[in-house]
Write the structure tokens for this entry.
Amino acid sequence: MRIGISVLTHAGQNIWENGLGQNVIFLAQIFQKLPFVQSVALLNGGDQRTMPPQVDMSSLGLALLPISEAANQIDVAIEMGGALDVKWLDHLRAQGKKVIWYCAGHPYAGLIETSIFGKPGYFNRADRCDEIWLLPEYFTAFSPMLRTLYRCPVIEVPYVWSPQFLAQRVAEIEKEGVEFGYKTRVADALGRRPGLRVAIFEPNVSVAKASTIPMLICDEAYRAEPDSVDFMHVLNTLHLKDHPTLLYLANSLNLVREHKAVFQGRHDFAWYMVNHADAVLAHQWTNDQNYNYLDALYGSYPLIHNSPWLKGAGYFYPDFDTQEGAKQLVLAASVHDSQLDQYKWAAQKVIAQVNPLSHQNLQTYSRLLLRLWHAKALKSVAP
């Protein structure tokens, strides 16, 4: 079996732009480990001839193929990092080859917000694929919608992550003489530790992942226990800095009034945590699996979150409960240093579960591909 996974290259591309670029590489590495997979290639739907500089194609054993040259070199096309031309997909399927749409983004927000909020969007022809592979965070809520819309089976697939790109970035940063990872805060002469420097990394391009609730949580914690929060860093907000709603919201917060907050653009996780923060405060709505959470856990930084998937790791608060979120932030400020070993153990348990090359994940993806291929074989011999 020869597999192609779509990517969308562009000028100035960086692997840290989003999690999808990393996800493509992790999936490719899984397929490379399966004994019945002959080759894995990346299908280039963009305008560059190379992947981002953080992706060493040679060491990964991957080829970057122009779409125009790929039809005769693959048996399965996975539309993932970039949309594939529908006529090209029709040509593949006419040859008996299979097409999978790997839905790694929020299917409802991506469908609705573009039209409701007048944002640029894209919708490909609904009947272009044989199956949809959907991440667990979306499966229960959105698989019926996708099954109806796209008229094909919707299959739940494992969520995978590896620290390989984070470790690569950390190695670059540590050449400057700094160290990545949480460091216990030094108490003063009266035994008081500094408050947490809280970073909020939500992208603020969708209601599914926005910084409003974390900002309120951080301010609630500061009002209840001023010593728990030293500073609030709200990233990915420069495109909103002049919006009246954000301005009014921000100016209502004690942290802003007392000059203990800053609103920043986009920065990569490792660099920002090393230089500016030591805790991560997050919020999601039907989007509870996030690489940023795993980056924080890998670095042993206190992660205050509302992801049911991670309920056993970090500091959990439910839903939109800002008061409970504030309690968890205060708790993290109080106990994280003394309970660091337990925290690391819980984090490593999560990281082991999402390891792309774990036996369970390899077996699951193997079964998915073989089942799809078996269905193809049965169809070809049917009378």
